[in-house]
Amino acid sequence: MPSSITSDIIKPPSPPRGGGGGGGGSDGWGASRRASMTGLMVLLAATTMAFAAFTSAFVVRRGISNDWVALPLPRIVWANTAVLLASSLLLELARHSLKSGRRSAFNRYWTAGTVLGALFLLGQALAWRELNTAGIFVATNPSSSFFYLLTAAHGLHILGGLTALAYVDVQALRLRLGPGKRTAVDVSAMFWHFVDGLWLFLMVLFLVWG
Amino acid sequence: MLLAPIIWVLTVVIMYFFAAKVWWFPPPISQHGLAYDAQFMRTLVITGIIFFFAQFALGWAIFRYRDDGRRASYSHGNNKWESIWTSATAVLFVGLVLTGTKIWVAVHLSEPDPNAVPIELMAKQFAFSFRYPGPDGKFGNTDLKLVNDAAGNPFGLDDKDPAGKDDVVSASLKVPVGKPIKLIMHSRDVIHNFFVRELRLKQDIVPGMEIPLYFQADTPGTYEIPCSELCGLGHFQMRSTMQVMAEADFEKWKQEQAANK
Amino acid sequence: MSSPVVHAHHAPQGFIRKWIFSLDHKVIGIQYYFLALFSVLIGMSLSLLMRYHMVHPDAKVAWFAKLWPTAAQGGIMTPELYLSLMTMHGTIMVFFVLTTAPQSGFGNYFLPIQIGAEDMAFPVLNMMSFWTTFLALVVMVAAFFVQGGPPLSGWTGYPPLSAIGPLAGPGEGLGQTLWIVSIAIFCGASLMGAINFIATLIDLRCQGMSLMRLPLTCWTWFVTAILGLLGFAVLLAAGVLLVLDRSAGTSFFVPGGLLVSDQILSHKGGSPLLWQHLFWFFGHPEVYIAILPGMGVTSQILSTFSRKPIFGYRAMVYAILSIGFLGFMVWGHHMFMSGMSPYSAMAFSVLTMAIGVPSAIKTFNWIGTLWGGKIHFTTAMMFALGFVSLFVTGGLSGIFLGQPALDLYFHDTYFVVGHFHMIMGVAAIFGMFAGTFYWFPKMFGRMMNETLGKIHFYITFLGVYCIFTPMHYLGIAGNPRRYSDFTNFDFLGKLLPVHSFMTQAAYGTAAIQILFFINLFWSMKYGKKAPMNPWNATTLEWTVPSPPPFDNFGGQHPVVNHGPYEYSVPGAPRDFIMQTDPVDVHAE
CB within 8 A of A157, min separation 6: which ones? Predict the structure, then answer.
């Protein structure tokens, strides 16, 4: 059991020391939470670099040849953006509720946020469908190549985030969200907000340079 | 310890082969080449001195401080020495770059000579082709669809274009001695590279880009051109030659070629 | 994300849990080490085939025909086969040897112990990172067995050659695709590793282990992880774009106007230089990933066996940090001749020379560490000393290549090949040998054979100098790289004797490696039992049994009171003070 991803932390017998595990110790919840936060930051740094690489490729490709045709952004993308922002908001309301101990409010908000997240992904698929119908595919134009590429890469990260959100949701609904899982809640929410922010960045890229 | 003399012997042997120029550059055939060789020498001398002293010091430390019963000295370092060798290294390294800048600027960032003889180079898997404008000084239009290597038209010259009628196409590069040349380079497929050792010049030839290379050859002769960027399975045999000849001979050659078309 | 597992009560049971899907960073480290060992055998065999062909391009070798019926008909290796072997040699060595063993092998094993932790921050992620790396290796090796064989575009995979598919040659179809997929999987594995290394180092240090008390090995593993984190993400992006160009008809890297094998390609507008920028933005940090851990190990070993603190610890730390930081700003020096802006070239050149400075600092400090020391010549020490010599030789040729003015001749010649082999193919490997001899007692509870080790060292040291120094002379003579044979040019024919010499040296040096393998495997079973601290060294791994228990410190929480290199401290009872010794060393 201790070796599974879903394990709660067993607090070990720690030497009597003021400040428990929150100090420089490597035992207990203090270090675990800090390590998880660091791990998240590292993951976000990598994602940032990958999208930075895509963005620079975007900028370079747009600049070097004159075959770039501006892409007509499917209108549903605006709705998707609103849905994604709403889902982030709901997750924050959920975390707020959890802090004040209102478990059922947490469950409601978190589930809603997760569902909206899934809805975003669905909406993105519909956006792709809309482009396909208009005869715009991956290789049609560099602008469409980048649109499909960036939305696919972003979508993969949404999928990863959704998996985390869904896991927390299931744990919460099965009343297994103990204090040891607080970090999982925070880490998934922060990851989700990041991917949300990333989407806003991509929207700006599409609107201004697409 | 045995390692010390081994390091010393290796150091001396390695330096010998550099000093004796056993395997060396071919003689340069241009002013640029002379400047190049001077910068190379500067770099060789400085790195050679560092090489010798670093390997010697390493060997000496190994020999002198082998365990013979003494106690080691307890020291965490010496800031004075640290600053000295850090600054010395920085000055030497950056200094070398700065002395080499003139050469780089001369090749790539100086005002091109308007009288440079224009010659076009087309690289493909796995051959170089060269094109010389005729007396009209203009290159004729080309079209990829008209390319026919078997019929001797690697450039895809459009014979409907009068400007191209006097263009001369050749598998080797011929240049007049002592005259500035502008080599206009294209690739038809993948990245290749034009390299002449005696000129001390090379340049990647990138598809989708037109890259000019300016040079002047001052010594007549025939010099090999090995492709120097991996271009596929024939890379090792992608070869041409540059023939540097008197200007009169160069003009005569072009006329002969045009007459034989 | 999994939470740190506390092993306090649960040692793993069962063979699978203990040795296959282990969560123990020590087992995972050993798994990575053996993956690297397996890969280096493949990589080395490929290089021997290459060296043979360069000297005997027309030789008929019967078993070539058996292995490669199409690519070596009649037993003669075709140029495309040569290029495929060359591509895989570079790829396997750089990724599966130099990026695994020094960092994920030794780093996984010893980072947690050296900082006083029970395990890495995320043991499940750690296990996944190894098996993902293993999967990447499987996919890469699969490229040998598909139709067309492995790609021929070099480990650098420049488009258009790598983007236009089978038109470019056998291996450019499925082989190239598998190559990209394998690299992409490897990027994922690397990211998982980076998460663990960085979180572990930042958050799981034991009491008293401040940043400035970290052994230099930990600093190098830390900075290497950051380099990998930022670099591999960019490589992954580049790989995705390349796959799209190859199979989805996009034109990120492929321009218009291409005629290949009488076909006009439909791409247009892409830039081959874009690939080069993205690739080398990863590629340069990658070579520092390959060398930094070796530098850390060398510092560790030189200090231990000189019985002297590291000369200039603080400067060493700053040097490691500068190398890491500057490592991201010099990628353009791989592209001086590429057709990119000459102004960029000048900027990259200055930065490249700047990065030579911290490297020089480290070299002087290593010699400074030896100076005034009391040197014990164990095999580990020999390899560390060899590392310094090789790093000097290999690093100095970089001073030529970092100047675009000189690169006008040296780009794509054997001068470059000599430079990077000296640094990566030798110095970094010596770092791995040194680490092996130093840490084997701790990892396997037994001592390696010193006599065998020293013989192996001396012959290898001389051998690698014989193989790779002549490459610099060949470069001066203008010998281009990536040529499968040298019979088409007059000036190359004259250089064949040098190639012959290098080939013979290569075969001899490769053969002597058998001594290392014998030593390694024999000692695992029959070596003399190792004490807890055979080298009288100071860092935390020497305070635990050889090998350590599954939770490293047996449930204890070490407390660190001293820096990592307190050797020969005047007035101390012994000639070394361990990091965990009491503050007042005279108190027993």
Answer: A47, A195, A198
Q: Residue C475: which residues within 8 A CB-CB, separation 6 or more?
A: C410, C413, C414, C415, C416, C417, C418
- Give the model's confidence band at C583: pLDDT under 50 very low, under 70 low, under 90 confident, else very high: confident
pLDDT, residue A178, reads 79
Burial (CB count <10 Å: 0-12, 13-18, 19+), residue C509: buried
pTM of model > 0.90:
yes
Any idea what the CATH number is for the domain that residue A150 is in? Answer: 1.20.120.80
Is the pLDDT at A16 greater than 90, yes or no?
no
The answer to the question of residue A168 being in a domain is yes
The neighbour count for residue A70, using CB atoms within 10 Å, is 10
Contact assessment for residue A147 and residue A71, using Cβ atoms and an 8 Å cutoff: yes
| CB-count burial class (<10 Å; 0-12, 13-18, 19+) for A67 | middle
Q: The domain C20-256+266-270 belongs to what CATH superfamily?
A: Cytochrome c oxidase-like, subunit I domain (1.20.210.10)
CA–CA distance, C109 with C119 (Å, rounded to integer)? 9
Residue B176 pairs with which residues in a beta bridge? B245
Contact C111, C214 (CB under 8 A): no
Please check the confidence at residue C588 and state whether its pLDDT lies above 50: no
CA–CA dist C447, C462 (Å, integer): 25
ipTM exceeding 0.85?
yes
The answer to whether C8 contacts A184, with C-beta atoms less than 8 Å apart, is: no
Q: Which residues of chain B have pLDDT under 70?
A: none
Q: Class of C330-526 per CATH? A: mainly alpha
- Residue B169 pairs with which residues in a beta bridge? B131
What rounded mean pLDDT belongs to chain C? 95
pLDDT above 90 coverage of chain C, percent: 92
Q: State the DSSP code for C440.
A: H
The three-state secondary structure class of B182 is: strand
Q: Residue A14 falls within a domain, yes or no?
A: no
Query: Given a cut of 60, is residue A10 above it in pLDDT?
Result: no
Q: Judged by CB atoms within 8 Å, which residues 163-202 of B form the interface with C?
A: 188-191, 193, 195, 197, 200-202
Distance CA(C134)–CA(C186), nearest Å, equals: 9
Query: Does residue A160 have a pLDDT over 60?
Result: yes
Residues of B in contact with C255 (CB under 8 A): 207-209
CB contact under 8 A, C346 and B54: no
Do the Cβ atoms of C399 and B204 come within 8 Å? Answer: no
Q: How far apart are CA C187 and CA B6, in angstroms?
A: 41
Does A185 have pLDDT greater than 60? yes
Domain-embedded: residue A8: no
Give the residue from chain C lying closest to A16, CA to CA.
C557
In a domain, A92, yes or no: yes
Domain total of chain A: 1
Q: In chain C, where are the structural domains located?
A: 20-256+266-270, 330-526, 536-588
Integer-rounded Cα Rg, in Å, for chain B is: 26
A142 in contact with chain C, both atoms CB, cutoff 8 A: yes
Beta strands at B180-187 and B211-216: parallel, antiparallel or unpaired: antiparallel
C249 and A46 within 8 Å at the Cβ level: the answer is: no
What is the pLDDT at residue A176?
A: 82
Angle of helix C106-114 relative to helix C216-247, nearest 10 degrees, comes to: 140
With 80 as the cut, is the pLDDT of residue A159 above it? yes
Distance CA C193, CA A78 (A): 37
Angle between helices C174-203 and C216-247 (to 10 degrees): 150
Work out the percent of chain A whose per-residue pLDDT is above 70. 86
Mutate to test the interface with C, among B64, B104, B121, B224 (most CBs of C within 10 A): B104
SS (H, E, C) C487-554: CCCHHHHCCHHHHHHHHHHHHHHHHHHHHHHHHHHHHHHHCCECCCCCCCCCCHHHHCCCCCCCCCCC
Cα B197 to Cα B30: distance, rounded to the nearest angstrom: 11
